[in-house]
UniProtKB/TrEMBL annotation:
The keyword ATP-binding appears for this protein: yes
Protein name: ABC-2 type transport system ATP-binding protein
Taxonomic superkingdom: Bacteria
GO molecular function list: ATP binding
Keyword Nucleotide-binding on entry: yes
Record function comment: Involved in beta-(1-->2)glucan export. Transmembrane domains (TMD) form a pore in the inner membrane and the ATP-binding domain (NBD) is responsible for energy generation.
Entries under InterPro entries matching the protein: AAA+_ATPase (IPR003593), ABC_transporter-like_ATP-bd (IPR003439), ABC_transporter-like_CS (IPR017871), P-loop_NTPase (IPR027417)
ABC transporter domain ranges (all copies): 14-241
Family recorded in the similarity comment: Belongs to the ABC transporter superfamily.
TM regions (residue ranges): none
PROSITE patterns noted in UniProt: ABC_TRANSPORTER_1, ABC_TRANSPORTER_2
SUPFAM superfamilies in UniProt: P-loop containing nucleoside triphosphate hydrolases
Length: 315
Protein backbone atom coordinates (compact mmCIF):
# COMPACT_ATOMS: atom_id res chain seq x y z
CA UNK A 1 0.00 0.00 0.00
CA UNK A 2 1.34 3.47 -0.86
CA UNK A 3 2.35 5.55 2.19
CA UNK A 4 -0.25 8.02 3.33
CA UNK A 5 -3.03 5.96 1.71
CA UNK A 6 -5.38 4.21 4.08
CA UNK A 7 -7.59 1.27 3.18
CA UNK A 8 -10.67 3.50 3.16
CA UNK A 9 -9.05 6.05 0.80
CA UNK A 10 -8.58 3.45 -1.88
CA UNK A 11 -11.21 3.10 -4.58
CA UNK A 12 -13.42 0.01 -4.43
CA UNK A 13 -12.07 -3.07 -6.21
CA UNK A 14 -15.44 -3.55 -7.87
CA UNK A 15 -17.82 -0.67 -8.51
CA UNK A 16 -20.57 -1.32 -11.05
CA UNK A 17 -23.88 0.40 -11.66
CA UNK A 18 -27.05 -0.66 -13.47
CA UNK A 19 -25.35 -3.72 -14.89
CA UNK A 20 -27.73 -5.48 -17.27
CA UNK A 21 -27.45 -8.52 -19.53
CA UNK A 22 -30.01 -9.98 -21.90
CA UNK A 23 -30.00 -13.35 -23.57
CA UNK A 24 -32.46 -13.88 -26.42
CA UNK A 25 -34.32 -10.68 -25.46
CA UNK A 26 -34.76 -11.76 -21.83
CA UNK A 27 -32.94 -9.77 -19.12
CA UNK A 28 -31.16 -12.24 -16.84
CA UNK A 29 -29.24 -9.54 -14.93
CA UNK A 30 -31.17 -6.35 -14.29
CA UNK A 31 -29.71 -3.02 -13.17
CA UNK A 32 -27.30 -4.45 -10.64
CA UNK A 33 -25.25 -2.10 -8.43
CA UNK A 34 -22.32 -3.65 -6.62
CA UNK A 35 -19.43 -2.20 -4.66
CA UNK A 36 -16.71 -4.31 -3.09
CA UNK A 37 -13.82 -2.91 -1.04
CA UNK A 38 -10.24 -4.16 -1.03
CA UNK A 39 -9.71 -7.21 1.17
CA UNK A 40 -13.40 -8.07 1.46
CA UNK A 41 -14.73 -11.59 1.04
CA UNK A 42 -18.19 -11.20 -0.43
CA UNK A 43 -20.54 -14.15 -0.87
CA UNK A 44 -22.75 -14.13 -3.93
CA UNK A 45 -25.85 -16.22 -3.31
CA UNK A 46 -29.10 -16.89 -5.09
CA UNK A 47 -31.16 -19.65 -6.68
CA UNK A 48 -30.01 -21.53 -9.79
CA UNK A 49 -30.17 -19.37 -12.88
CA UNK A 50 -30.46 -16.12 -10.94
CA UNK A 51 -27.56 -14.44 -12.76
CA UNK A 52 -24.50 -14.98 -10.54
CA UNK A 53 -22.21 -16.42 -13.22
CA UNK A 54 -23.38 -13.85 -15.77
CA UNK A 55 -22.62 -11.01 -13.33
CA UNK A 56 -19.19 -12.40 -12.47
CA UNK A 57 -18.34 -12.78 -16.16
CA UNK A 58 -19.35 -9.18 -16.87
CA UNK A 59 -17.23 -7.91 -13.98
CA UNK A 60 -14.08 -9.68 -15.16
CA UNK A 61 -14.43 -8.64 -18.77
CA UNK A 62 -15.45 -12.02 -20.21
CA UNK A 63 -18.93 -10.86 -21.15
CA UNK A 64 -19.98 -7.48 -22.50
CA UNK A 65 -22.94 -5.97 -20.59
CA UNK A 66 -25.99 -4.72 -22.51
CA UNK A 67 -26.37 -1.88 -20.05
CA UNK A 68 -24.66 -0.25 -17.12
CA UNK A 69 -21.09 0.72 -16.42
CA UNK A 70 -18.38 0.46 -13.83
CA UNK A 71 -14.85 -0.42 -12.95
CA UNK A 72 -13.02 -3.49 -11.76
CA UNK A 73 -9.60 -2.85 -10.15
CA UNK A 74 -9.92 0.71 -11.46
CA UNK A 75 -10.33 -0.39 -15.11
CA UNK A 76 -13.43 0.26 -17.16
CA UNK A 77 -15.40 -2.97 -17.59
CA UNK A 78 -16.68 -1.80 -20.99
CA UNK A 79 -13.42 -0.76 -22.59
CA UNK A 80 -10.53 -2.29 -20.61
CA UNK A 81 -11.47 -5.96 -20.41
CA UNK A 82 -7.95 -7.14 -21.28
CA UNK A 83 -6.41 -5.17 -18.39
CA UNK A 84 -8.96 -6.65 -16.01
CA UNK A 85 -8.54 -10.26 -17.20
CA UNK A 86 -4.80 -10.04 -16.58
CA UNK A 87 -5.26 -8.97 -12.96
CA UNK A 88 -8.09 -11.26 -11.92
CA UNK A 89 -8.08 -14.89 -10.82
CA UNK A 90 -11.24 -16.58 -12.09
CA UNK A 91 -12.27 -20.05 -11.05
CA UNK A 92 -15.23 -21.58 -12.82
CA UNK A 93 -17.82 -23.99 -11.47
CA UNK A 94 -16.40 -27.01 -13.23
CA UNK A 95 -12.82 -28.26 -12.84
CA UNK A 96 -11.13 -26.11 -15.43
CA UNK A 97 -7.78 -27.86 -15.62
CA UNK A 98 -6.88 -30.73 -17.94
CA UNK A 99 -7.64 -34.09 -16.34
CA UNK A 100 -5.27 -35.89 -18.73
CA UNK A 101 -2.30 -33.66 -17.99
CA UNK A 102 -0.20 -34.09 -14.86
CA UNK A 103 -0.50 -31.68 -11.97
CA UNK A 104 2.78 -30.02 -12.95
CA UNK A 105 1.90 -29.84 -16.66
CA UNK A 106 -1.35 -28.08 -15.75
CA UNK A 107 0.47 -25.51 -13.64
CA UNK A 108 3.07 -24.89 -16.35
CA UNK A 109 0.27 -24.50 -18.90
CA UNK A 110 -1.60 -21.97 -16.75
CA UNK A 111 1.61 -20.05 -15.97
CA UNK A 112 2.20 -19.75 -19.76
CA UNK A 113 -1.39 -18.58 -20.29
CA UNK A 114 -0.79 -15.78 -17.81
CA UNK A 115 2.42 -14.87 -19.64
CA UNK A 116 4.55 -15.48 -16.55
CA UNK A 117 8.30 -15.23 -17.06
CA UNK A 118 9.71 -18.24 -15.25
CA UNK A 119 6.97 -20.81 -15.73
CA UNK A 120 8.94 -23.77 -14.33
CA UNK A 121 9.73 -21.87 -11.14
CA UNK A 122 6.15 -20.63 -10.79
CA UNK A 123 4.89 -24.22 -11.12
CA UNK A 124 7.50 -25.53 -8.67
CA UNK A 125 6.71 -22.84 -6.07
CA UNK A 126 3.01 -23.64 -6.36
CA UNK A 127 3.65 -27.39 -6.01
CA UNK A 128 5.76 -26.75 -2.90
CA UNK A 129 3.15 -24.44 -1.40
CA UNK A 130 0.43 -27.03 -1.95
CA UNK A 131 2.59 -29.87 -0.65
CA UNK A 132 2.11 -31.64 -3.98
CA UNK A 133 5.75 -31.72 -5.11
CA UNK A 134 6.01 -35.50 -4.72
CA UNK A 135 2.81 -35.97 -6.74
CA UNK A 136 3.76 -33.60 -9.56
CA UNK A 137 3.64 -36.40 -12.15
CA UNK A 138 0.16 -37.59 -11.18
CA UNK A 139 -2.65 -36.99 -13.67
CA UNK A 140 -4.88 -34.14 -12.41
CA UNK A 141 -7.96 -36.23 -13.19
CA UNK A 142 -6.97 -38.76 -10.52
CA UNK A 143 -7.04 -36.18 -7.68
CA UNK A 144 -9.90 -36.15 -5.17
CA UNK A 145 -12.56 -33.44 -5.58
CA UNK A 146 -11.08 -31.40 -2.74
CA UNK A 147 -7.56 -31.54 -4.14
CA UNK A 148 -8.77 -30.65 -7.62
CA UNK A 149 -10.32 -27.48 -6.24
CA UNK A 150 -7.20 -26.60 -4.24
CA UNK A 151 -5.11 -27.13 -7.36
CA UNK A 152 -7.48 -24.98 -9.42
CA UNK A 153 -7.35 -22.23 -6.77
CA UNK A 154 -3.55 -22.38 -6.69
CA UNK A 155 -3.47 -22.23 -10.50
CA UNK A 156 -5.69 -19.17 -10.70
CA UNK A 157 -3.63 -17.32 -8.07
CA UNK A 158 -0.19 -18.11 -9.56
CA UNK A 159 -0.01 -14.76 -11.37
CA UNK A 160 -0.70 -12.93 -8.07
CA UNK A 161 -4.09 -11.44 -8.98
CA UNK A 162 -5.57 -8.65 -6.86
CA UNK A 163 -9.10 -10.00 -7.19
CA UNK A 164 -10.45 -13.54 -7.06
CA UNK A 165 -13.76 -14.36 -8.69
CA UNK A 166 -14.80 -17.83 -7.60
CA UNK A 167 -17.90 -19.37 -9.15
CA UNK A 168 -19.19 -22.16 -6.89
CA UNK A 169 -15.64 -23.34 -6.23
CA UNK A 170 -16.60 -26.08 -3.80
CA UNK A 171 -19.68 -27.60 -5.47
CA UNK A 172 -19.73 -31.30 -4.63
CA UNK A 173 -16.68 -31.14 -2.35
CA UNK A 174 -16.84 -32.80 1.09
CA UNK A 175 -17.15 -30.63 4.25
CA UNK A 176 -13.56 -31.08 5.46
CA UNK A 177 -12.10 -30.15 2.07
CA UNK A 178 -14.51 -27.21 1.83
CA UNK A 179 -13.38 -25.98 5.22
CA UNK A 180 -9.73 -26.19 4.17
CA UNK A 181 -10.55 -24.38 0.94
CA UNK A 182 -12.18 -21.58 2.95
CA UNK A 183 -9.24 -21.37 5.33
CA UNK A 184 -7.15 -20.72 2.25
CA UNK A 185 -9.55 -18.05 0.99
CA UNK A 186 -9.24 -16.25 4.33
CA UNK A 187 -5.46 -16.48 4.20
CA UNK A 188 -5.49 -14.96 0.72
CA UNK A 189 -7.80 -12.16 1.89
CA UNK A 190 -5.45 -11.42 4.77
CA UNK A 191 -2.71 -10.97 2.20
CA UNK A 192 -4.86 -8.27 0.58
CA UNK A 193 -6.80 -10.18 -2.07
CA UNK A 194 -10.42 -9.30 -2.61
CA UNK A 195 -12.80 -12.22 -3.13
CA UNK A 196 -16.24 -12.47 -4.72
CA UNK A 197 -17.43 -16.04 -4.36
CA UNK A 198 -20.70 -17.60 -5.43
CA UNK A 199 -22.01 -20.49 -3.40
CA UNK A 200 -25.17 -22.39 -2.50
CA UNK A 201 -23.80 -23.50 0.88
CA UNK A 202 -25.07 -21.66 3.97
CA UNK A 203 -21.99 -22.48 6.06
CA UNK A 204 -19.86 -20.86 3.36
CA UNK A 205 -22.12 -17.78 3.27
CA UNK A 206 -21.48 -17.47 6.99
CA UNK A 207 -17.73 -17.39 6.39
CA UNK A 208 -18.00 -14.27 4.20
CA UNK A 209 -17.55 -10.72 5.49
CA UNK A 210 -20.66 -9.73 3.57
CA UNK A 211 -23.34 -11.36 1.44
CA UNK A 212 -25.17 -10.26 -1.67
CA UNK A 213 -28.31 -12.21 -2.55
CA UNK A 214 -29.61 -12.16 -6.12
CA UNK A 215 -32.90 -13.58 -7.40
CA UNK A 216 -34.16 -13.43 -10.99
CA UNK A 217 -31.36 -11.04 -11.92
CA UNK A 218 -32.05 -8.51 -9.15
CA UNK A 219 -30.17 -8.01 -5.88
CA UNK A 220 -32.77 -8.45 -3.15
CA UNK A 221 -30.60 -8.40 -0.01
CA UNK A 222 -27.10 -7.41 1.01
CA UNK A 223 -25.21 -7.05 4.27
CA UNK A 224 -23.59 -9.17 6.95
CA UNK A 225 -25.29 -12.40 7.97
CA UNK A 226 -26.82 -10.80 11.07
CA UNK A 227 -27.92 -7.70 9.14
CA UNK A 228 -29.68 -9.86 6.55
CA UNK A 229 -31.40 -11.93 9.24
CA UNK A 230 -32.47 -8.76 11.11
CA UNK A 231 -33.72 -7.06 7.94
CA UNK A 232 -35.93 -10.09 7.18
CA UNK A 233 -38.02 -9.49 10.35
CA UNK A 234 -38.83 -13.20 10.36
CA UNK A 235 -39.88 -15.06 13.50
CA UNK A 236 -39.11 -18.74 13.98
CA UNK A 237 -40.77 -21.19 16.37
CA UNK A 238 -39.50 -24.70 16.94
CA UNK A 239 -41.92 -27.55 17.54
CA UNK A 240 -40.77 -30.71 19.28
CA UNK A 241 -42.43 -33.83 20.69
CA UNK A 242 -44.37 -36.79 19.29
CA UNK A 243 -47.00 -34.64 17.65
CA UNK A 244 -44.56 -32.42 15.75
CA UNK A 245 -44.92 -34.14 12.32
CA UNK A 246 -48.72 -34.01 12.46
CA UNK A 247 -48.68 -30.41 13.72
CA UNK A 248 -46.35 -29.54 10.84
CA UNK A 249 -48.91 -30.92 8.37
CA UNK A 250 -51.71 -28.97 10.03
CA UNK A 251 -49.67 -25.75 9.91
CA UNK A 252 -48.61 -26.02 6.27
CA UNK A 253 -50.41 -23.29 4.34
CA UNK A 254 -52.12 -21.88 7.46
CA UNK A 255 -52.52 -18.09 7.79
CA UNK A 256 -49.33 -16.49 9.10
CA UNK A 257 -47.22 -19.58 8.40
CA UNK A 258 -44.72 -19.05 5.59
CA UNK A 259 -42.33 -21.98 6.03
CA UNK A 260 -42.58 -25.36 7.72
CA UNK A 261 -39.40 -27.43 7.68
CA UNK A 262 -38.42 -30.54 9.63
CA UNK A 263 -34.95 -30.53 11.20
CA UNK A 264 -34.30 -33.98 12.67
CA UNK A 265 -37.07 -34.68 15.18
CA UNK A 266 -38.02 -30.98 15.38
CA UNK A 267 -39.94 -28.72 13.04
CA UNK A 268 -39.12 -25.06 12.29
CA UNK A 269 -42.13 -22.85 11.60
CA UNK A 270 -41.38 -19.42 10.16
CA UNK A 271 -43.42 -16.31 9.42
CA UNK A 272 -43.05 -12.55 9.04
CA UNK A 273 -46.06 -11.64 11.21
CA UNK A 274 -45.07 -12.86 14.68
CA UNK A 275 -48.58 -12.53 16.11
CA UNK A 276 -50.28 -14.36 13.24
CA UNK A 277 -47.64 -17.10 13.44
CA UNK A 278 -48.21 -17.51 17.17
CA UNK A 279 -51.99 -17.64 16.71
CA UNK A 280 -51.59 -20.38 14.07
CA UNK A 281 -49.33 -22.45 16.32
CA UNK A 282 -51.61 -21.96 19.35
CA UNK A 283 -54.53 -23.26 17.30
CA UNK A 284 -52.83 -26.63 16.66
CA UNK A 285 -51.30 -26.95 20.12
CA UNK A 286 -54.43 -28.33 21.77
CA UNK A 287 -54.83 -31.18 19.26
CA UNK A 288 -51.17 -32.21 19.06
CA UNK A 289 -48.66 -33.38 21.64
CA UNK A 290 -46.02 -30.70 21.04
CA UNK A 291 -43.74 -28.33 22.91
CA UNK A 292 -43.11 -24.93 21.34
CA UNK A 293 -40.18 -22.60 21.82
CA UNK A 294 -38.92 -19.56 19.97
CA UNK A 295 -35.85 -20.27 17.83
CA UNK A 296 -33.24 -18.31 15.95
CA UNK A 297 -34.10 -17.48 12.36
CA UNK A 298 -31.43 -18.91 10.08
CA UNK A 299 -29.90 -17.53 6.92
CA UNK A 300 -31.50 -20.40 5.04
CA UNK A 301 -34.98 -19.39 6.32
CA UNK A 302 -34.33 -15.86 5.04
CA UNK A 303 -33.08 -17.02 1.65
CA UNK A 304 -36.10 -19.27 1.13
CA UNK A 305 -38.35 -16.29 1.85
CA UNK A 306 -36.41 -14.00 -0.48
CA UNK A 307 -36.59 -16.63 -3.21
CA UNK A 308 -40.39 -17.05 -2.83
CA UNK A 309 -40.94 -13.28 -2.79
CA UNK A 310 -38.86 -12.80 -5.93
CA UNK A 311 -40.66 -15.72 -7.60
CA UNK A 312 -44.05 -14.15 -6.82
CA UNK A 313 -42.95 -10.81 -8.31
CA UNK A 314 -41.61 -12.54 -11.43
CA UNK A 315 -44.96 -14.23 -12.18
N1 LIG B 1 -24.79 -17.85 -23.00
C1 LIG B 1 -26.07 -17.90 -22.63
N2 LIG B 1 -27.06 -17.91 -23.54
C2 LIG B 1 -28.36 -17.93 -23.17
N3 LIG B 1 -28.78 -17.93 -21.89
C3 LIG B 1 -27.85 -17.92 -20.92
C4 LIG B 1 -26.44 -17.90 -21.24
N4 LIG B 1 -25.74 -17.87 -20.08
C5 LIG B 1 -26.67 -17.89 -19.08
N5 LIG B 1 -27.92 -17.92 -19.61
C6 LIG B 1 -29.18 -17.90 -18.82
O1 LIG B 1 -29.12 -16.77 -17.95
C7 LIG B 1 -29.70 -17.07 -16.70
C8 LIG B 1 -28.70 -16.77 -15.60
O2 LIG B 1 -27.66 -17.74 -15.66
P1 LIG B 1 -26.42 -17.75 -14.69
O3 LIG B 1 -25.56 -18.90 -15.12
O4 LIG B 1 -25.83 -16.41 -14.65
O5 LIG B 1 -27.09 -18.07 -13.28
P2 LIG B 1 -26.43 -18.55 -11.91
O6 LIG B 1 -27.06 -17.73 -10.85
O7 LIG B 1 -24.96 -18.53 -12.03
O8 LIG B 1 -26.97 -20.06 -11.79
P3 LIG B 1 -26.35 -21.36 -11.03
O9 LIG B 1 -26.48 -21.10 -9.56
O10 LIG B 1 -27.25 -22.44 -11.50
O11 LIG B 1 -24.95 -21.49 -11.50
C9 LIG B 1 -30.16 -18.52 -16.76
O12 LIG B 1 -31.51 -18.54 -17.10
C10 LIG B 1 -29.32 -19.09 -17.89
O13 LIG B 1 -29.99 -20.15 -18.52
Amino acid sequence: MRSGTSQSDRPPVIEVENLTKRFGGKAVVKDIDLEIARGEIVGFLGPNGSGKTTTIRMICGLLHPDGGSGTCLGYDILTQAEEIKRRVGYMTQRFSLYEDLTIEENLVFVARLYGMKNVRKAAKDTLDRLGLASRRGQLAGTLSGGWKQRLALAACTMHKPELLLLDEPTAGVDPKARREFWDEIHELAELGLTVLVSTHYMDEAERCHRIVYIAYGTIVARGTVSEIIDQSKLTTFILSGKGAPAAAKALTGADGVEQVAPFGSEVHVVGSDAQALKTAIDSVKTDHDIAVRQGETTLEDVFIRLMSQAQALEK
